[in-house]
Each structure stands twice: as structure tokens, then as C-alpha cells.
Amino acid sequence: MLNPKDNVVTVVNGASAGQTVHYFKGSELCSVTTTEQIPPCHKIAVAPIAKGAHVIKYGEIIGGAQVDIGVGSWVSHLNIDSLPRDYSSELSE
Does domain 8-85 match CATH 2.30.130.110? Predict the structure, then answer.
């Protein structure tokens, strides 16, 4: 987890279904159990993400959920959409 606002983390080495993945949220050691196979260097949900809600990584919106994504689920191009952004207004904030 790169930012405490994140609702996903990257599983560096991959994980099997039912495996516990540990990560730090700030200085707090947290864990989540996978619900499916997670390929290496892919994202896993550490909080429920409702259909249409933002997927957050690096403290930034990286997409929108196409479906409800449960805790421990693989988050990939198969279940999130890119969202349009207004970079010029973001840079002026």
C-alpha cells in the first residue's frame, strides 16, 4: 500500500486463492485473504469497491469498478474502467 487512502495493494509475488497477503497501511501491519488466484504484480482489493466506485492506488483514482469487487479479489482491466480526467484542473489545485 502506497497511500492510506488506497483500496488496492499490489501483490508482488502473486498469491493463490485462500492465501493471506500482508501489507502495511502506514505503520500498521494488515492482512487480507485472497478469494482467487492473483498474478504477480497485480492488484487486490483490501476494501470493498462497489460498482461505479473509484479504484484508488497511490492515493489517486486509477479507474472505476465495472462490478462490485469484494475484499481479496483480483482488480484488473477485466473489472475496472479507465475514467476521463481533467489534468489541467488537477495540476492547478
Answer: yes
